[in-house]
Amino acid sequence: MIKTLANQTELTKGHNLNSIVENNFKKVNLKLLIVPIVILLFFICFFLFSMEGSFVNTYVESQKDLFLNLNHLLSIYPNLEYNISYLGDALVLFPFVFIFLFLTPKLWEAILTSSLITLITCAILKSFFAVPRPAAMIDMSTFTIMGRPNILHTSLPSGHAMTAFMVITILLYAFMPKKKASKILWSVILITVGLVIAFSRVAVGAHYPVDTIIGCTIGYSIAIFGVKINTKLNWLYWMKNRKFYPIIMLILSIWAYLVIMKLIKHNMVIFYLSLLALIATFVVIVNKYAKTIKA
Fold first, then answer.
1. Residue 101's closest CA among 110, 92, 89?
2. Are 153 and 59 in contact (CB under 8 A)?
3. Is the peptide bond before 132 cis (omega within 30 degrees of 0)?
4. Which of 63, 93, 144, 149 allows an S-S link to 75, with CB 3.0 to 4.6 Å?
5. Where does residue 233 fall: left (phi above 0), alpha (psi -120 to 50 degrees), or beta otherwise?
6. Interval 187-206: pLDDT, tens
């Protein structure tokens, strides 16, 4: 009897959290796209009116000094920035929010939908603009580079910035507080975290400043669309049913293997933290599934 009541209380808490996310997502509207649209239009107009020669040369030369200055300023602690920059990698970032898979399926509906759109959009834009990375255009001895120098023509936009800001934006609106003061504080904290992750790509010498700004802007916009698309859908609701937990455990196990491979290759703190987050989620799910079997 006590176990049954405990399980019901647990389910109610999960349902309440998912309801909070659903209600918050219903408040998200397309007016939130006004600011990102203005930002994108500003950059389009700026490069159109200042273009001298090819777009690539104009794009790089117009922010070369800014890139060098920011890279020098932000790379004071290069190892820290290198770790932070990996939070723009879905493989590393997602484990920190995997705990919500069975607590708030609505959150993950938005994340998975937005991730797919982000992946496609990023690939198309990188191919369309074909802007060379800083290491391919600027003397590598003049700035800090962490990791292997990337000389591919895949600079615009920053995929890491898009991914990080997409997830940050979904979390921002999913758990938006009701009180105005709390809303402001919550928004400032999450947006700051997103910008820190995004500009770490400049710090490690992988992207130009505008790459990250446009990446953040597009990531934010995609997240809004991802939330709106899933407002009336419930295609991940089955994840709250514990008989499907073995499927989630299998996914987490495969994910952990991939993170471990990264860890073995790079041996960085961020991979250990990502792996710990995965293990924590796995333990919680195993515990919940074990209770179901006993019941």
1. 110
2. no
3. no
4. 144
5. beta
6. 999 999 999 999 999 999 99
Place of tokens 């490069």: 47
Residue-range definition of the domain harbouring residue 123: 2-294
- pLDDT digits 0-9 by tens, 236-293: 888 778 888 898 899 999 999 999 999 999 999 999 999 999 999 999 999 888 887 7
Q: Structurally, how many domains does the chain consist of?
A: 1
| pTM of the complete model | 0.92
Given the structure tokens 């710990």, which residue do they identify?
276
- 58 residue type, one letter: T
User: For residue 241, with 0-12 CB atoms within 10 Å meaning exposed, 13-18 middle and 19 or more buried, which class applies?
Assistant: exposed
Name the token pair of 78.
């290069």
Residue with tokens 């493989």: 91
Q: For residue 139, what are the contacts with CB-CB under 8 A and spacing of at least 6? A: none
What is the C-alpha to C-alpha distance for residues 171 and 93, in angstroms, rounded to an integer?
A: 13
DSSP at 66: H
| Residues 6+ away with beta carbon under 8 Å from 200 | 74, 81, 82, 84, 85, 87, 88
